[in-house]
Structure formats: C-alpha cells, structure tokens
Design brief:
The complex is a heterodimer of chains A (132) and B (76). Chain A is an all-alpha fold and 132 residues long. Chain A has 6 helices and no strands. The two termini of chain A are 13 Å apart. At the A-B interface, helix 3, helix 4 and helix 5 of A face helix 2 of B.
Chain lengths: 132, 76
Amino acid sequence: MNKYQESLISMMVFLVVCLVSFMNSDFSLFGIASESMREILGTPPPAHLISITLMVYLFSSMVLTISDMVYDKEPKSKWTHLGYRTAFFLFYGFGGMIAVNFIPVMVVGLFLYGLDQLHILHYEKHVVGQVI
Amino acid sequence: MKIKLSTILIMVMIHLSSVMGAIASTGIREDNSMVLVYCFLAVCGTIIFLQIVPLLVIGYGMIKAVFGKREVSQIK
C-alpha cells in the first residue's frame, strides 16, 4: 500500500468519524456518564481553548506540509494526525459542543488531508517521476 | 531566647495541618479530578513537541539563511 492509498484510507476513517459526530451532534458524552465517572473525569476543557489548539494545529501542520513540498521531502505516514483530528471531536463531545464546532473541525481535517494528498502527488510527479 | 529553625518549621506544619482539616471539613476546598483537562494538556503537549518545535527549527533556519553571512565565491 503506497502513501497515497494510506492517506485516502485515513481520510475515509476521518469522514466516518465526522459522520458519527454529526449524527450525535446534540449528544454530550459527559451527560451520559455516571456520577462516579464524572468525578473521575472532572470538568471538560473550555471550548475556546480547544478552538485555539485547533487553529495552532492547523497553522503548524499546514506550514510543515508546505515546507516539505518546497524542499521535496518524502511524505511521511500521518496516522497520528487522524488521532489528533478525532481527539478534537472527542473533547468537543465531552462538553456537548460538537453541534457548534462541527464544521471547523471537519473543514480543517479535510483541508489538511487535501494538502497531504497534494504533497504526495507532487513528490511522486516531480521527485520520483511517476504519475499515480 | 534562641528558637531553632526546626522548631519553627514543626510549629508551622502543625498549624497548617489544623487549618487544612478545618478547610476540608467546611467544604471550602474541593478536590476535583481533572483527567479530561490532563488528557487535553497531553494532546496540546504532543502537538507542541511534534508540530511547533519543527516549525520553530524551520523558522530559525529561514531567518538564519536570510540574515546570515553570505559566502562570496571568488573567481580566479
């Protein structure tokens, strides 16, 4: 399985996560937890801090991918990024704020996947000399 | 009258222990677990170490390349 297919599969998994989150957008994970579980979990992080983290993640990931493209570096496997992108849904989900913040997380995720695909295509075309 | 430092420390600790007991009994301070916040901080830390640090290294390299000394090649 090459990097392009790997990235596509990762994007498909992310889309499934998006779909599940959208279907349960009014659902608070914190609300369904038992009292003892809530005591263990504590209060969920505030939404504005999660949004700031999302923006920092978007900016840093975008600049790193573009710099890799400019310097013709080989695309890396980015399965950990699926974890980050899912984690944002989870944190919003614990606060019951997915309905408000669903679009930004999905747009950021899909934009970064698009950029990753562009990086892979650029590398295969200009560095390896092979068109996928 | 000389009072040793250790004696003062013991007195302070005894006093604080009684005060903490009083606070705990009145419910002024609650020990809330913050597992979710710690998980969030862990994700933030991972993003900082894996994303921001390489970004800063690239930024430093670019600034160094722009403002650093340039080697002038001499053609003989």
